[in-house]
Design brief:
Blueprint: H1 3-6, E1 14-16, E2 25-27, E3 37-41, H2 53-59, E4 63-66, E5 77-79, H3 83-94, E6 103-108, H4 113-126, E7 131-134, E8 138-141, E9 144-147, H5 155-167, E10 172-176, H6 179-183, E11 194-197, H7 205-208, H8 211-223, E12 230-234, H9 240-246, E13 251-255, E14 264-271, E15 274-280, E16 286-290, H10 295-310, H11 315-324, E17 333-334, E18 342-346, H12 351-364, E19 369-373, H13 383-394, E20 397-400, H14 410-418, E21 427-429, H15 433-443, E22 449-453, E23 460-463, E24 466-469, H16 472-483
Parallel strand pairs: 2-3, 3-4, 4-5, 6-10, 6-11, 7-10, 11-12, 12-13, 18-22, 19-20, 19-22, 20-21
Antiparallel strand pairs: 1-5, 8-9, 14-15, 15-16, 17-18, 23-24
Helix pairs in contact: 3-5, 4-10, 4-11, 8-9, 10-11, 12-13, 13-14, 15-16
């Protein structure tokens, strides 16, 4: 498709030069430019693509799209009001709008996105429909597994994945949609059949600046829905009414533990092996056994159920899909090396997530709860003391350690965590993460539960600017085998 056709109808301020030549790729990273590509000069977290237009010229870019008027550029140029929105629309068109051949679903919220997306994928597959997945742990595209750099990739990558899903014969795609992606218009123009809101608690304030801006970013998904879509909303969350008010969807389904919600448990039995749920739904009662324990996973299952029903699956298929999913990597993942106590690895890296995990563990534990956690560097510092208070309140013993310190001093991060720990709390500090895990496992006795929180599926630890291999699950298993 030539550039003139590719950008026809997209809001434009000015079009410069001959736009009738063919475009063979779209790039937002100047380091990946090849001759014949269209360079999208967009702003990122730390850099502005406009500063790399000169590099794009040298690398052989054929044209530039930007929202910052520039002079002296010897390439055809299209100046638009919003380069990120333009990039999303151009990418969709470049890949021949693959979303039109897929049932698109999405999940947003602070916690629960990953587990809910895997549940949705399992529901589609229980209904004999192959479903791709874009998310935090990895992207599942046809028979390919693609390493995930971001929960929600940039728009050209999303539409490339969607195109590959269609080529692989898939019928649906479920996506985790981060607040960063919404603020940066990565899913702009995607028409979702159904989306879910799981919850909203403090996170990512290093990027958004304030909780209000964080809420505004999450709201974008619902305020941009089409009239034939369904919004599935957690009524238990204090911000649910705000999401309902801004939603432009044709239908709203609420879920929660109160009888006021469209989907709610009629009966619920929970233990360490999972939950047995009898669920009220608009299409009648349904029953299922969820292998993943905890109220928060029942909440995730209700969100996935709402999406499944909104996409037309009968409740029997939805139940089967939920039961078929046994676990999600790094999400309340049990590590078993034959020991007589339980070890859990979880991604909980924000205050609310840590509180949910430890509260659930407290409910199912027959012995003590031992917590191992740290906080990431170069991220929201305000949550550190909160997490220190939560861990020492809900766990019988806490080992404070390092997470991904990045360019911060690990001891400085730990000192801020300790500001929230009250006098007399049972804890100790071991900055080296492996030694902290060893200590927690050595402390555990029969019937105890050790929760290793913060990194979940991640198989690395970032110290300075270097990414070192480190996997909590792998490390815990190795230590347990050695202890045995």
């Amino acid at each position: 498709m030539n550039l003139d056709e590719l950008t026809a109808g997209i809001p434009t301020i000015e079009r410069r030069g001959d736009l009738t030549f063919e475009i063979n790729s779209i790039e937002y990273d100047s380091r990946k430019i090849k001759p014949g590509c269209l360079f999208m000069a967009v702003r990122g977290f730390k850099t502005d693509g406009n500063t790399f237009i000169g590099d794009a010229v040298k690398m052989g870019a054929s044209a530039v799209v930007t929202d910052e008027p520039a002079s002296g550029i010897p390439l055809p140029m299209i100046i638009v009001p919003d380069a990120r929105k333009a990039m999303a629309l151009i990418a969709d068109r470049f890949y021949s709008s693959p979303q039109n051949s897929l049932i698109m679903t999405g999940i947003t919220g602070t916690n629960g996105k990953t587990t809910t997306s895997y549940m949705v994928k399992s529901i589609f597959e229980a209904g004999c429909m192959s479903c791709g997945l874009i998310g935090t742990i990895r992207h599942l595209v046809g028979n390919e597994t693609v390493q995930s750099a971001n929960t929600t990739p940039e728009a050209p990558d999303i539409h490339s994945f969607l195109s590959r899903m269609v080529q692989a014969g898939q019928s649906a795609c479920t996506m985790e949609i981060s607040s960063h992606a919404l603020a940066l218009s990565r899913v702009y123009g995607i028409r979702f059949r159904a989306v879910a809101f799981t919850n909203l608690t403090r996170d990512h304030l290093d990027f958004h600046g304030s909780f209000e801006s964080y809420l505004d970013a999450k709201s974008i998904l619902f305020s941009s829905l089409s009239g034939d879509s369904t919004a599935v909303i957690n009524r238990d969350d204090p911000y649910s009414q705000h999401i309902i008010n801004v939603s432009r969807s044709g239908k709203i389904l609420t879920f929660g533990f109160s009888n006021e919600s469209d989907l709610h448990p009629l009966s619920l039995e929970m233990d360490s092996g999972g939950s047995r749920v009898e669920l009220a739904t608009p299409t009648g009662e349904m029953n299922f056994h969820l292998s993943m324990p905890g109220r928060f996973n029942v909440s995730n299952a209700m969100a996935a159920c709402g999406i499944g029903l909104a996409c037309g699956f009968p409740k029997e298929v939805v139940s089967r899909g939920l039961e078929n999913l046994k676990s999600v990597p790094g999400r309340y993942q049990t590590i078993n090396a034959g020991q007589d106590f339980t070890v859990i690895v979880d991604y909980a890296h924000a205050p609310d997530a840590l509180e949910r995990i430890l509260a659930t563990t407290r409910e199912i534990s027959k012995g003590r709860v031992i917590s191992v956690f740290g906080c990431g560097g170069d991220r929201d510092r305000g949550k550190r003391s909160q997490m220190g208070e939560i861990s020492t309140r809900l766990a019988d013993y806490t080992v404070v350690t390092s997470d991904n310190p990045r360019t911060e001093d690990p001891d400085g991060i730990i000192a801020e965590i300790m500001q929230g720990i009250p006098n007399g709390a049972a804890f100790e500090v071991i900055p080296d993460r492996e030694n902290a895990i060893i200590r927690a496992l050595e402390l555990a006795s029969s019937g105890d539960v050790v929760v290793i929180a913060g990194k979940g599926h991640e198989d690395y630890q970032i110290i300075g600017t270097k990414k070192n291999h480190f996997d909590d699950a792998e490390t815990a298993y190795r230590i347990l085998k050695a202890m045995k």
